[in-house]
From TrEMBL, chains A, B, C, D:
This is Dihydrodipicolinate synthase family protein. Keywords: Lyase. Gene3D superfamilies: Aldolase class I. It holds the Pfam family DHDPS. InterPro entries: Aldolase_TIM (IPR013785), DapA-like (IPR002220). It comes from the Bacteria. The keyword Lyase applies. The keyword Lyase applies. Belongs to the DapA family.
């Protein structure tokens, strides 16, 4: 049940063919190679950036299997297996484990608001079905469910293989509370890009981000400066990359990251409708921001 | 493109077998018959109450086809066809139309926040794909997207077959604004149970509700009193049924309505996990409320 | 301790001299006479509209004393005595009572967030200091404190002379809850102008409003239609006056009501800075709205 | 117009006599001496902690004059001069300047929501009336007004002596935006205690806090570690003092700081009602927290 997930955890996009149809697995492979070659510490397919929610079950399986195989243990693979029913989330978790995932990530996706007891039972059922560690993921903006720190710790304490927490509310006080109430024993990871500096300051063990698709070295350098305890350098590195971090958050990760990959020579198609590809104006802004960072 | 949807629009549950597996179509048929026999003015399958979001595509098709056939034009059928991608929502809308739906309902379901332009394009693409009217559905609590009245009217004016609006924010000012800005030409329907009295006072043409599964006569009487302009009677009827309306909203519609149907002799199974069935304490409260209303 | 406050409760402005300096009591007297002559059922000086919070203590005393004397029991007078400290609120309450106020209104004004126990003690201390009834006033938008219905009922049950509730959250469910939990024994009054129709539908006993300074007959007719249980006429009257109600809320009551009084021939000066008088564009809009209502 | 406000800016309480009546200026003098002797870099009387809003005008003048004289230029004095009308805020600002304040702090206190133009005019009118620098203060929780970063920069650019910004929303992104849009030229200060570590990480020039009344050395050490760029030491110091920072924020600054001063031998009375003094249970918790920090 040990894992040592840390540092820069790179999220992959899911490349589609024309009109958002079909999967372009060769392009996915290239984007994974880029991330690993740049030095990221882990790969996370099928997250928000990966449009996991917009795939059919068959497509989801293909992307999971391909990604894990392609990473080939060069770094750990963390597969997002969230689904609306407990049964379907379990199926995905088992599938990911069976194909070699090192960790699975679970967001309590919901249509009907879930009670704390329902959320705990959901994590327990998934945890009981697999042997790999689970990274609990809190992101009310996409899941509609905001887990309190108290609930998160109940889950961590109650489900053996929930051993890590990804926090994406953007509220640094959650991390403080996790640190204090969790008595520094629960590793937490930051999922809010423009909070990267402060999350590391507060003790985050890693940064879950799609930014390394575009600016891996800046992301890695920020982590290194934080790990070295060099606040002045960390601050300087953070403010340099902040315009890009703000841009990809505000513009939507699939649209902005796909546009950015395309600008750097890797054609990965558009997001699936109703999500629009990045507008021409947006592409111009992105190009301008990226130019200042090279 | 004409339709005359009005009055009490009854939402159906989706009965499952043991452990939430499989569909129980005979029970679905019985629940539909009950609603129609009680006098509701329309039937709406696969909405929030119907756990549409928790079904596989194959199950969704089965429930849609069966429901439409079983209603058999005794009253209009309004099928919720929302899905996360535009392509899948179009597929469902076409399927519903092909099988005889009178109206389709569309909520702009989202994982990534949608811009106004993305939402408009989503409705346009669906509208262009079918010939039946669309009821636009605004419910930020479940969809994560809150459409402004201005956007709603842009869609109504821009997409020919979007001709009705279901408003579920619970904010009566939205209905006022629809009435004023829409120059009394856009029929709106209330989707927030504890707002039933005021929505009719403000001019709502109908009430989209799962309550008629349990208390159809009280719902119908409230509509009749409102239509007759009898405020004192409407108020009295509303406050009588309000404890039940509050209860089913607070307890979650699938769990409470399914429990209530079971208490009145129709076994329809439990909601799908992670949604819990109604607790024993809740069942006791529900029985007590229902007892006072008979 | 009896009182029979009901119907249209007209809020007065506080006229100032040039540059917001000094009080113009003759103009205040004229505005009070207009309201009473138009038929309002009570007069409420020193509320939000009356810029009570922007007066010095000496000015506050002058306005309170003058208003009560000028009304001269033609209708009941309800004086807002809210202040930031309990001691100062008690002083104002006693002053108002000593000068003949029929009712005092108390908002739990706060700088530091107050606990439920602090709010209850505040009302108790004021209640114990006077003999006239208190109208409890909930308006989180101006006071920063939102009292739950449960707290409101604890105060009503625990402080003998708190006998009425003015609700200004704009959330109709608060009134429902007051009606159900209060077992129809706690009279409530609506303080949110664009909720006038629905508040009466839900059983509000009165409407606290500055609108009668400008459109008294429409306000009174809406109340009469509601009292008569005539929903269709109430709805028609409400939608006619709604543009004016929206306008004065959105534009700020002191600025819009003062501008409107000026347009109808009663010069009452400007609000005190930093609050701006109504802009020229706003004055044009207001004139246009008022024109359609005559 | 130069000023070099930085580091730990200590907020003073306002000691009252029995029952919250009268001022205890000797105790105020002692609390000021304690703060200066402990090494704070500036003294700020009449802020939120100082219950400035709860004082009569005469009391406010006394406290301002006494505080400035007692500090006697040992460190800079920053006097909060906020008031509800522009005229009264100007009077206070002039009074403070005339008695030797180095800086005045202005929160756009409001009863009626203020527009951006009204807020800008308020700051301009105050700025034009005095010669000392103004620290703009954003704290929607107490003022009811949330100034956007864009508005803050318009004020800073438009009013010559508004040269510093105190940010108390607790949202670190505001500081990022001030830094980026202000092109690193607008010094900002943190007013949210549990954000102290991250604000320094993000480049805050100082920390406005009442905590040095109780734990000055820890506050000063955190500032020193941040200034030295030593992230590991800053983090360690921050987490040590965080329970105290959380406690004083959650319990209300006047109640908790006054209780803490009393526990350390300086009797300063209770807050003014309706604000309660710290409960006995709270006093026990505070004592326990303080014990671990000595």
């Amino acid at each position: 049940m040990m894992s040592n997930i840390h540092g820069i955890i790179g999220y992959t996009i899911t490349p589609f063919g024309a009109n958002g149809e079909g999967l372009d697995l060769p392009a996915l492979g290239q984007s994974i190679d880029r991330l690993i070659d740049s030095g990221v510490h882990a790969i996370a397919p099928l997250g928000s950036t990966g449009e996991g929610a917009y795939l059919s079950d068959a497509e989801w399986d293909q992307v999971a299997e391909f990604s894990i195989k392609h990473v080939a243990k060069r770094v750990p693979t963390i597969v997002s297996v969230s689904d609306l029913t407990t049964a379907k989330a379990i199926r995905r978790a088992r599938f990911a484990e069976a194909h070699g995932a090192d960790v699975v990530m679970v967001l309590p996706a919901s249509y009907w608001k879930l009670s704390d007891a329902e959320i705990l039972a959901h994590y327990r059922a998934i945890g009981d079905s697999i042997g790999v560690p689970i990274m609990l993921y809190n992101n009310p903006a996409t899941s509609g469910t905001d887990m309190s720190v108290e609930l998160i710790l109940r889950i961590v304490n109650g489900v053996e293989n929930v051993t890590m927490v990804k926090e994406s509310t953007g509220d640094i006080q959650r991390m403080h509370k996790l640190q204090l109430l969790g008595e520094s024993q629960v590793p937490f990871y930051n999922g809010c890009n423009p909070l990267a500096l402060e999350a590391f300051a507060a003790g985050a063990k890693g940064w879950c981000t799609a930014a390394p698709n575009l600016i891996p070295q800046l992301n890695l350098d920020l982590y290194a400066a934080s790990l070295a305890g060099d606040l002045d350098r960390a601050r300087e590195l953070f403010y340099r990359q902040l315009p890009l971090l703000d841009f990809i958050l505000k513009g939507g990760l699939p649209a902005t990251i796909k546009a950015g990959l395309c600008q750097t020579g890797l054609e990965v198609g558009d997001p699936r409708l109703p999500v629009f590809p990045l507008s021409e104006a947006g592409q111009g802004q992105l190009q301008a921001i990226l130019k200042t960072l090279r």
